[in-house]
Amino acid sequence: MENILLYIVIGAIVLAVVLGWNKKKTSTATQPGPKPTPKTTTTTLDNVAPAKADLVKMTKKQIDDTAAAQGVKLDARETKAKMIDAFIKQAK
């Protein structure tokens, strides 16, 4: 009789350990949280070209990228000065 009681107690302890271990594996701490929301920037002046002094400091690639972001198509084969003039003219 004492052996049966001992086996029941040992079985209960083993069961409690196994169930406790499974709970740790499925806890919410290991699950990924919500995705961060992307930061959005809004500009109220969509088609306003940067100042000419700012454009002169940029490379031709930067000027072309800035113009493209504002919907202005520039010819990259032109000189930097001509690209700046075209950008300012088309952005107005």
Quick summary:
By secondary structure, the chain is mainly alpha-helical. The chain is built from four helices and no strands.
How would you characterize this protein structure?
By secondary structure, the protein is an all-alpha fold. The protein has one domain (2-26, 45-91). It is built from four helices and no strands. The protein has helices at residues 2-25, 52-57, 60-69, 80-91. Helix 3 (60-69) runs parallel beside helix 4 (80-91). The radius of gyration is 34 Å and the shape is rod-shaped.
Q: Overall 3D geometry?
A: rod-shaped
Spatial extent as radius of gyration: 34 Å
Extract low-pLDDT stretches.
Answer: none
- What share of the residues lie within helices? 55-70%
Distance from first to last alpha carbon: 97 Å
**What pattern of helices and strands is seen along the backbone?**
HHHH
Mean pLDDT: 80
Strand elements, count = 0
Structural class: mainly alpha
Count of helical segments?
Answer: 4
Strand content: under 5%
Total number of domains: 1
Q: Describe the biggest sheet?
A: none
